[in-house]
Amino acid sequence: SPEPFKKFVSFTCNTINICEFHPSNMIHRVLLRKRKPLSTIHTITPMYKYINIRQYSTKPTNIPLPVSTEFDSSSNNRTMGKGRGRRGRRGKGSGFVGNPTYVEVDDPIDENDHDFVVLDGAFGEGGGQILRNSVSLSYLQRRPLKIINIRANRSRGGLRPQHLSGIVLVNQMCSGQLNGGKVYSSEIKLVPGEVTSATVFKANTQTAGSICLLIQVSLPCALFHNMPNNSVKIEYGGGTNASNAPPIDYLINVFKPIIKRFGVDFEIDIERRGFYPQGNGIAHLIVPSIQNVKSIELVDRGQIETIHITSYSSGAVPISVAERMTKSCIYLIQKTFGENINIVQENIFFDRNQAWGTGTGINLYAITSTGCYLGGGCLGEKGVSAEKIGHRGAQSLINNIFSGGCVDEYLQDQLIIFMALAQGRSVIRSGSLTEHTRTAIHISETCAGAQFNVEECEDGTFLISCEGIGYENPHIN
DSSP letter at 242? Predict the structure, then answer.
């Protein structure tokens, strides 16, 4: 055939997979020459570099069926889907099959039957923060929720796949009703039902959308989903290191040690890293359920004791790029804090079993004498030198240190919902309040009834205090 790609069909499980292979592949040429039977071709197809896969019914109508892209780690089908390209990498566990499809839910809901809490999605930062916090609180308090003008302040408004995946996950956890659960929807209605007895859930963005943002919306729900000391397990698919969201390393190195002070604990197992634009990362969250959230006081920052630096690369980016990022980062940190600052550094190359595709970046965090954690970092960008990425990562941490707060700009808003749920009064010292933090406070006051107070100090820091609502695990009699 003069066409640039050859096509074969292989029969599996009552379906026909039409697989396109590059003709320069040597094994492919041998198969063409020897005219091997289709069954033989199918047994070695995982060795090929897939360009595309479509799935068709074997019924005479031959009408294309929708393809589910939800991965199943117990599956033996290790076929990889569209978008792998020449830089793709095969990771352990199962992959995705077919073009991305999204789980959409559009249950009929009569507004007259429910007393909705109504929120304007254009308030404050006008993005996904409103969705994540309000949906979590709706689940916990079993209060019907309506959000209009979703993500109105973004260039591409409405629900994106990662937001939809998080809302659908929470809706499944509480057997609720969801109206408007579609990509690009500008309005949703959520009516929580009774918490399901299931303790294992899955959610994936079908894109490079952030896994960390999925964890943000589902973690408060998982904490109270079961009796204390029983765990909830959630498998996430998407981007582990994505733009406009904290990387999963931040969640582990900064968020986790601080959230432990609230009496909250969790474990994250990164099965496979996923980067923009393909995603396909896989992470597992294990959350022991608790009775209640403790209040905290975090007002003394102390002195910087150690700075941790981790640079990474994968796929087509060699380890030398990570090393250059680290070197540039260390130079700026030592220039700022002196050469005697204690630095712990690590350069990592993620192989094809640890990451999908090509990605690079740098993650940093500082630990203080009083146990505060401050983060920073930067994702690699095409056309931007490793030295500049390392410099940007160092500068982001330096800015957070100089802010004088006990929490950095990325952690502020993530702690607000836990302060609202806590028993008693919590106080944290932060640098300048971000719009995300102001929005999170508004949502917690509106949906949970918590009382917040923000006081600006003479040194330019802010004291955020909250009288929590003392939420208790509903499974305890």
Answer: -
